[in-house]
Amino acid sequence: MSTEIVVVPHTHWDREWYEPFQRFRLRLVALLDEVLDTMEREPAYHFTLDGQLACVDDYLEVRPENRDRVAALVESGRLAVGPWQILLDEFLCSGENIIRNLELGMARSDKLGGAMPVGYLPDMFGHTAQMPQILRKAGLLHACVYRGVPSSVTTDAFAWVAPDGTALRTQYLPVGGYGNGAYLFSDAEGLEQRAAGFVRTMREWHGPEGPLLAMYGTDHSAPVRGLPEMVAAIGARMDTLSGYIGAYSGDVAGLPQVHGELRSHARANILPGVISIRPHVKQAMSRAERMVERYAEPLAALWGQEWPGRFLDMAWWRLVDASGHDSVTGCGVDDTAQQVAARIAEAEQLGQAVRDMVTARLAQDVPSDGMLIVNPTPAARRGVVVVDVAGTDPLVDPSGAPVPVQPLEYAATLLLDEEMDPATALTFVHGTELYGQHITDWTVEDGTLTFTVARHTSVVVDLDDLRAAIGGVTRVRIVAEPRRTVAALVEAPPLGHTSLRPAPRERVYGGDEAERLPGTHHPSCWLSSDSAPLPVRGDEEVLDNGLLRVTIAPDGSLTLVGQDGTTVTGAGRIVDGGDVGDTYNYAPPLHDTTVSEPVEVESELICAGPLVSIVDVRRTYLWPASGEDLDGAPEVPAMTRAARMEEIAVTTRVELRAGEPFVRLRVDFDNRCADHRVRLHVPLPAAATQSYAEGQFAVVSRGLTAEAGCGETPLPTFPASSWVAAGGVAALLEHVTEYELADGELALTLLRSVGYLSRNRNALRPEPAGPQLPTPAAQSRGPRSVSLALMPYQEGWGEVLPHAEAFRHDLLVVPGLGESSLPLPEPAPGLSVAGDGVVMTSLRERDGWRELRVVALTPDATQAVVTGSFTQARRADLRGRPGEPLDVTDGTLRLPLGAWEIATVQLSGQLSGQLSGQLSG
């Protein structure tokens, strides 16, 4: 037989899955020990290490003495490592996480001798639309995929085209995926016949000429002994994946084209249920990514002193590690999910530490009775913040102008009033701290010792005098300064900061006696400019801010009427149905029971404006307690739901703020049920055959169906990262959320509860997706909370972009830490990024430059206008390698962007935040 087959020995290494990471690592070390020994013993042996450097890192942490052995094999071209740090799930992490993953894997692979120049994506549960552009801008000319490829692909190579037009030669792995050659060398007997059958099958895909790719390996597999001899016996040759694919130039001429994301069920299962299982992990991942990407890094780059690179690197390590396709997906055992959640929490904590370090430094210039307000978005913002301040005086901004406020809550002022031995009371005092505040004064009168305490004080109290004065004291009182929690409407510059503080009422309003009541706001605050928002008004039935009117129906659902008349009726309906599937695939019982009508509805007005109006809608439902296995066998899916009911109270907080064209919702309930799915339904104002969902540097259009073919039932449920829009209504999201357009409604999955990693028999998937292991924690029992917002629109989804940015990135409030005598510092802008459809995804420091990444979320060419105190700019690729210089005029860069283009630019010169930072530091 001629050399028609190129054998690529490899392992597909799930870092954590049906066993947690450290248990799998024990097996990994044994496997790589054997691989190194075999490759050194047999010079013809080649091995591909699954496209992820994590395997090498995990191995060398245990076997550091073998680094040179690994590097020698990589340098020789016989061992292929990278380009990824870890094989990710592309839909359950941010686009920036994808880039950092690739950046990290390629940089670390280079230190071992070079990364495999192939975007190897062998087992992801579908692929994002912009992956070809990401790979190309990182310097890769080839991709290699298995799942998600549509039926229109009938060859083993195609041109995968990103929304921006980038076309990448993509190797498809048909007929068995990354294990299509695993059976060839099971034993020597019948080897030639199996090889001949392989050639006949693969020629149908490849065509009459050229070598055929045989991926010899599978999950957690080790190399078979004597493989070189068996390969030689059939006239084949052995190589790495990059060796095989590298024979092609990357030219896509003549190849069939596939545009956008790959989420077809035609060729392989894509296991879409992972999007909605263990929702707390998805929430934590999105929250941690935002903390690092949009708070910690940009603030440190603009307003920090020494770049906290090591802390941020550690955060990104954990985020990238958590993005694994059996990690953030939640389709592992409970131990794995617990470890992933801990990793994500550490990433968020590292980001918080960096954010707080930077803002604490800025807060040193704000008096202790004031508040620093930080804007994490690159556009000027007017928004509502909630602040805790002393006294009842009005708030002012740095110009001395009054800030509109709305009292929300008053703190207790009497903290203690009891008969007590004063010696005991003195044991509560630590220095000048008492009950978490500072002593500002004390008095003894009529046998009562009274302490006065405050959050901040410059008063020094002599407690020695106190000890001499407590004779005869029988009662102790602790009185705190008056404090209140208020909503305040503030304006903040782009990626910059401002501040506010209380000021004496007489100084602010002069002789206006009408404004001497505590907690009121001056009417002129609402009339200061034509663009000032109208106040929001509310009661238990209607909330209205002039941009959006929200009416609460007797059944607890909402009617939304936008300023343009777009009307959504019946929004926020909660629907509970059975789910007897597993962590991979939703599956309803054969005889399902759905519950959509509450048995009781109550509404409570929390606050009525003028900045914030809130109503809590409490709906009580009777949900079936679980699914039922009629024959008691766990491998047989339940046919029905239990007759026993649980009474579940679902509270939806409906919040409308001044100036926002969307209503904020927070849905809370205690999940005491099992084997079910809970969705929030939003009827569409207009009929829609397409949805538009944002995620990973793109807005993807999807229809009402999904392509079938493999066996897995192709449910038209899809992921959305920050928003999804259809038919005139958009849902703004805090985390990746599963959605579906069904029966004229947008259905958003709040929770999916199941009890098995994989069921051997799933009604909507013909074969197991993994071992049938119990996952009781995947039932997600206990308190659940999901936040989102709903926004009617009329002109198109482009309206949604700026509001989704504002919803996901709240203004940050930090208590002032400076001397009380300080004036408020002037508002300080950081960096402005503007342009139709232009969204900032990253801002950090790299090699002395500030590196900014933006994406054009628009089907048309546009321009990013970047403004700040920089003097030089240049393009860079996704690995940070500098490119062409760019013109900067008066601190402004005008950057042309093609439709859907991801652009990275590096800026040099003093950015505005650094002027007061590093120079004074």
Automatic annotation (TrEMBL):
Region (Disordered): 762-782
Keyword Repeat: no
Enzyme Commission (EC) number: 3.2.1.24
Record has Metal-binding as a keyword: yes
Biological-process GO terms, alphabetical: mannose metabolic process; oligosaccharide catabolic process
Domain Glycosyl hydrolase family 38 C-terminal per the UniProt entry, residue ranges: 543-755
Keywords noted in UniProt: Glycosidase, Hydrolase, Metal-binding
GO molecular function annotations of the record: alpha-mannosidase activity; carbohydrate binding; metal ion binding
Domain Glycoside hydrolase family 38 N-terminal: 5-220
Entry-linked InterPro entries: Gal_mutarotase_sf_dom, Glyco_hydro/deAcase_b/a-brl, Glyco_hydro_38_C, Glyco_hydro_38_cen_sf, Glyco_hydro_38_N, Glyco_hydro_38_N_sf, Glyco_hydro_57/38_cen_sf
Family label: Belongs to the glycosyl hydrolase 38 family.
Name this polypeptide is given: Alpha-mannosidase
Originating organism: Nonomuraea gerenzanensis
